[in-house]
Amino acid sequence: MSINLKQNDLSHVVAADRHHVWHHLSQHKHYETADPRVFVEGRGLKLWDANGREYLDGVSGGVWTVNVGYGRESIANAVRDQLVKLNYYAGAAGNVPGALFAAKLIEKMPGLTRVYYSNSGSEANEKAYKMVRQIAARHHGGRKWKVLYRERDYHGTTIGTLATSGQPQRADQYGPYPDGFVMVPHCLEYRKQWDVENYGERAANAIEEVILREGPDTVGAIVLEPVTAGGGVITPPEGYWQRVQEICRKYDILLHIDEVVCGLGRTGTWFGYQQYDIQPDIVTMAKGVASGYAAISCTVTTERVFDMFKDTPQDGMSYFRDISTFGGCTAGPVAALENMRIIEDEGLLENTAMMGERTFANLRALMEKHKVIGDVRGKGLFCGAELVADRTTKEPLEEKLVQAVVADCLAQGVIIGATNRSLHGGLNNTLCLSPALVATSEDIDQITGAIDTALAKLSV
Ligand code: PMP
């Protein structure tokens, strides 16, 4: 059955949603007096809701996902053809799109060789943490089992990945958490923690301090977002990544880059880490891998990491003791293959870099006009504007005012985001833009124009 609704059926859909769907990240009290927004159709960056209202989506499906835009028939067709041929087989056996996508992906990731499939960003990161623990058990006498993570970064919603949440409001109320996950300071220069000239190097040295405090022989890996997403769209300062890499090599610590948001083109290169000329040991990705046309995530490793799961004379037969049931779905890799083809054939990396420049130029112009913009950050089509009540003190703008800007844009038919709601204050003050990589100059101008109009209404 395909779902083809007439306009008057849609009121039933909205009622069904209102009474029976438990929405993500939602305060449901709101729906006691208002209908939830239910989207019906999308094309490119455009969306239509159940009332027939049109929107320009400036956040690629809410959470930086639909990189190639809505309504891609070629992806739908590729998935359909694959599903009627073979939809699934799990475990040790392979499948055609899984093999072809892994090979294609690896072409874009020099130095990495192995792709482990699962379904969500959280799951991909959990796999990486399990790899680190198993490597510690097999090769380091149980030591080197700890994973460092960074303040303000986010890596997922499971208990294991929440143990690496650098955003306390996400993790509060779900503990206690497993041991062995240790936080390092964030590197956002706009909110300086050290008054030094070479901030990038200083922020990276803070990682070394934690390693020395914990004991280098207990630390197996560090997980970092290349550009922090939900924690405030944070581009690390000059020199940060080189120093991080040096530190990892010095103490034999695996560098795990979480590309769940940046992966597959968001920053204008295939991966965010490629903006910084570093060589990770583990890379995880999810959202943009198939642009939300199917669920797929990958934990990609070097051959050196992979080799650590091979037999040894000491412990005989060995392997990574993990499975993901839906890692055997073929819809994910076949959608991902077509997604990659689109990015390549349509020159979307180049477009992202170009449109990113335009977005930053527009935002910087808005900064001249609106004192409430304290900082503009990001890479490619992954842009943030931090809002402050006072530029000198950098006091974050009140959450309700940040939300008022988001709501005003929505009323103008433009969807933008703001970083996560915080119980601790200070995080939810960055407006986020992450339109699909097919965005045109007109789209960008419409999005930043809506922000301009919304900011003009703020009386700060
Ligand atoms: N890592 C990062 C950087 C993310 O932003 C997210 C999701 N917002 C995740 C991991 C978790 O991904 P998922 O929701 O697919 O589990």
UniProtKB/TrEMBL annotation:
SUPFAM superfamilies named among the record's database cross-references = PLP-dependent transferases
Gene3D superfamilies with a match to the protein in the record: Aspartate Aminotransferase, domain 1, Type I PLP-dependent aspartate aminotransferase-like (Major domain)
Required co-factors: pyridoxal 5'-phosphate
Entries under PROSITE patterns matching the protein: AA_TRANSFER_CLASS_3
- Sequence intervals crossing the membrane: none
Q: Does the keyword Transmembrane helix apply?
A: no
Q: Which UniProt keywords apply?
A: Aminotransferase, Pyridoxal phosphate, Transferase
Alphabetical list of PANTHER family matching this protein:
AMINOTRANSFERASE, AMINOTRANSFERASE CLASS-III
Protein name, entry field: Taurine--pyruvate aminotransferase
Question: Which organism does this record belong to?
Answer: Rhizobium altiplani
